[in-house]
Structure formats: structure tokens, C-alpha cells
Design a protein that fits this description.
Strand content: 15-25%
Largest sheet: 3 strands, antiparallel
Number of helices: 1
Radius of gyration: 14 Å
Shape: elongated
Oligomer: single chain
Order of helices and strands: EEEH
Distance between the termini: 17 Å
Strand order of the largest sheet: 1-2-3
Number of strands: 3
Structural class: alpha+beta
Length: about 80
């Protein structure tokens, strides 16, 4: 699955604009479609967590995830 390009987002934790993008864990076996929102601020102490007080949430990309799930289901059903 291809994810869209990075989006601009005003991060209240670092008080500046950051770039965010939806990612998935690397690896060939993915039993569940776990997603993660990644930002370009490597110095932020919450950069790998998506947990409070980090404002990044997977729901910010709900439209992208829904589209991917629909496409996956269509492939399984053979169109």
C-alpha cells in the first residue's frame, strides 16, 4: 500500500510545524494492520510513541486507512 505524502501539522508539543505521515511496521508478516503516525522531529521525546501529550493520532489518517481497507477487501473478494 502506498501512503500519501507527508502532511504539514502544527505540533503543540514542540510548538512548531512538523511533517507527519502514516506508516506501518516493517516486515513481511503483519497479522494485524497496525498503523503509526511518524513525524520528522527526531529530537522530540514523544517521536516514537503517539501517546499523550503527543498530539499525533492514527485517526488523523482515517480516510487513508479506510480507503486501504476497502481496497484490501476488494482484492480478497476478487472484485
Amino acid at each position: 500500500m502506498r501512503f500519501p505524502r507527508a502532511r504539514d501539522f502544527w505540533c503543540t508539543t514542540v510548538s512548531e510545524s512538523v511533517l507527519i505521515r502514516l506508516t506501518r511496521p516493517a516486515g513481511l508478516t503483519r497479522a494485524t494492520p497496525d498503523y503509526f503516525v511518524q513525524c520528522n522531529q527526531i529530537d522530540c521525546q514523544y517521536v516514537e510513541t503517539n501517546a499523550l501529550p503527543c498530539p499525533l493520532r492514527v485517526d488523523m489518517f482515517r480516510d487513508v486507512i479506510s480507503g486501504a481497507e476497502m481496497a484490501r477487501q476488494a482484492r480478497r473478494e476478487g472484485w
